[in-house]
Write a structure and sequence with these properties.
homodimer, alpha/beta, four-stranded antiparallel beta sheet, 9 helices, 12 strands, DNA-binding
Chain lengths: 226, 226
DNA sequence: CGCTTATTTGACTAATTCATTACAGTTGTA
DNA sequence: TACAACTGTAATGAATTAGTCAAATAAGCG
């Protein structure tokens, strides 16, 4: 079963969304404001996706989306009446997974939701790779029961690579995905962090050089051969 | 926030319930059959109460109620058109917490829900961690038979951390979960409370620094290694 | 109201992490 | 091999974040 959080200040839109989604097997939970939805998430409840209206009286969709992003990897689809490119870009940069403009058909809505769900399924909170444990919830990196002390940036970096085995990340990719889209950082900075990660993992006894490899001229990747 | 699961085969009744409950601050999740609701619970989702119609085509309310009872202590209020004493008794025996006959007023519905929630909240939470006793009921914190005098906020803070060992709480998390949603508090305020908690526990002889740890750049957690 | 206790704040210090730099080392290619 | 492009390294100052504490403010209570 798939649970979708609907966030819109207009009751009519909430009802319409539910009308479209329930027959398609989605469980809907409606919220008239983003803060309500956030509270729901903060309380540890789970959901599979959030449909979020941008135009809302108190806190707008952008802010809500950012807050959701900070606390979880819940996929977010933004809803809006406006279809300006600027908004789309802003939304996607902020971390929204997709963007639907009103009005929309039932087919479009459901199709987009399915697509986003397919994409987002892979993200994990806890990853174990050959004895190396990465846990987002506990914010620890362990190897063979010993804790590896890493900084926030290092932690994010390792997590990203582990979550996408064999994918090559350019320094630009890493910049956006680890540092955030507006960061302006030199290439050497990223190298430095990679170095530190390698150092710490190596010292813990993990054969990091087999896995965290440099792709010459491009960036870095975590190689998984098994 | 309180989440209520609505289970009824009639869409109209689901809508009516939602219409009554949402304005009273309840979050509603609607299910057209008991099995759907059960699946929702089986998947680990949380809720505070279930409103369950007795008369349903496939599996009736009694059966659903029994299954809910087996897997959790979620309070259940049964809904029915019949008002025969027999049913009431049967329902309460099976484990329902209350019983509402249709038709009902908004006031009655909300009042009963509140009453059941009040009752069900009480039977909660006593945690013992290495000699440290946290008792919600008595609202006391003890270590080796000596009472540790803590303020309400400090008490909530310790309770939250103890209830989720090893989980890292960002200051934003703590803000929402301890202070409540609309609180606007500075980071230093949270630190202050953490400091006070550490201070008091330390003075009582509890080795708090081993457990209540700072996760640099993220927040705080209660580390449990055992 | 006046007293007590709890909570919050802000200024300051301490600790840690981050970004940069310059240069040494490495790789790819002609 | 030579050279150009790229990556690795280590040290360091800047920036960010956390800890501390006293004082201000708010909240409870008789």
């Amino acid at each position: 079963m798939t649970t979708i959080l609907l966030v819109d200040d207009e009751l009519r839109m909430l009802d319409l969304l539910e009308l479209y989604l329930r027959p398609n097997g989605f469980t809907c939970i409606k919220f008239e404001s983003g803060t309500e939805a956030l509270r729901y998430l903060y309380e540890g409840n789970k959901a599979d996706l959030m449909l979020l209206d941008i135009m809302m009286p108190s806190e707008d969709g952008w802010e809500i989306c950012q807050k959701v992003r900070k606390m979880s990897n819940l996929p977010v689809i933004m809803l809006t009446a406006r279809s300006q490119t600027l908004d789309v870009v802003k939304g996607l940069n902020i971390g929204a997974d997709d963007y639907i403009t009103k009005p929309f058909s039932e087919e479009e809505l459901v199709a987009r939701i399915r697509a986003v769900l397919r994409r987002s399924l892979k993200e994990k909170h806890e990853i174990t790779y050959k004895g190396l444990v990465w846990s987002k919830e506990n914010h620890v990196l362990q190897y063979k029961n010993q804790q590896i002390q890493v900084t926030p940036k290092e932690f994010e970096l390792v997590g990203l690579l582990l979550q996408h085995l064999n994918r090559v990340f350019s320094r630009d990719d890493l910049l956006v995905l680890v540092w955030g889209y507006e960061a302006e950082i030199g290439d050497r900075t990223i190298d430095s962090h990679v170095r530190n990660v390698r150092d710490k993992l190596r010292k813990a006894g993990f054969p990091v050089d087999e896995y965290l490899q440099t792709v010459w001229g491009i960036g870095y990747k975590w190689v998984d051969v098994s």
